[in-house]
Amino acid sequence: MTYQLHYWPTIQGRGEFVRLALEAAGAAYVDVAREPPGKGGGEAALARRLDDADNPRPAFAPPFLVDGDIVVGQTAAILLYLGPRLGLAGSGEADGLWTHQLQLTIADMVAEAHDTHHPISSGRYYEDQREAALERAKCFREERIPKFLGWFERVLERNPAGDLHLVGDALTYADLSLFQLVAGLRYAFPKATARVLADTPAVAKLHANVGRRQRVHDYLQSPRRIDFNEDGIFRRYPELDG
User: Fold this and answer.
1) Which helix (H) or strand (E) holds 64?
2) Mean pLDDT over residues 7-33, rounded?
3) Neighbours of 126 (CB within 10 A)
4) Which one, 32, 109, 223, 225, has least CB within 10 Å?
């Protein structure tokens, strides 16, 4: 079965966490909105699926995953569904639940990163809320990045199987998502993130190790990996980096 990933075709966004899991596992999938319209792709296909009146369980927003008759929305829920199927959720129920908890914490930080450049409203331009963004970003840099990455550092240090992975001794989607989180922070807040990573060496090591995995490395070098840009979650506004 080929999975169908539905997400915006020009940004990494929240869909990238799902895409990394599919790529790392070597799973067959179609990035529907990035397919040519003539092949049933494009943003129009994404919009049609969102507005499908025959779907009794509509997705609120992308990303969502289609697997046969099953449609799963929300990044963490998609990964909760995919994790065991792709061998990326640890071993057993306890590992699976812990992996999900880690993903939810990453989702919290992703939302806070987004709100640094849109602290008042997602519907307004950054330039219309720049003063509020400067204040929000200062707190994010000085308080929230150290708190979140410091917690992940402790998780790695306390893993009974060693500090190479967040869960057990094998790759999980939580490792992949932490990799993406760090990559986004390094893009948006390069100075602040470098300072925190100097104090969280296990997090920095995990990020480097994940990026060296063959399938992940090949994906990162391919055109399938969209560059970070100022339409996505992680945006580089130098003034927000202090």
Assistant:
1) strand 64-67
2) 96
3) 15
4) 223
Q: What are the extents of the domains in the chain?
A: 3-86, 92-213
On whether the CB atoms of residues 75 and 107 are closer than 8 A, the answer is yes
Distance CA 16, CA 63 (A): 9
Structure tokens at 206: 């995990």
What length does the chain have? 242
Domain 3-86 matches domain 92-213 at the CATH topology level: no
- Show the CA angle centred on residue 47, arms to residues 45 and 48, nearest 5°: 65
**Mean pLDDT value across residues 118-124:** 95
pTM over 0.85: yes
Contact 198, 192 (CB under 8 A): no
CATH of the domain spanning 92-213: 1.20.1050.10
CATH topology classification for 3-86: Glutaredoxin (3.40.30)
Output the six-digit token pair for 36: 């040519």
Provide the token pair at 241: 């980096």
Which two tokens mark 184?
Answer: 């986004």
The two structure tokens encoding residue 123: 């519907």
Q: Kindly indicate the confidence band of residue 48, based on its pLDDT and cuts at 50, 70 and 90.
A: confident
**163: Cβ contacts below 8 Å, ≥ 6 apart:** 156, 157, 202, 205, 206
Question: Which of 193, 194, 173, 183 is closest to 232 using CA atoms?
Answer: 183
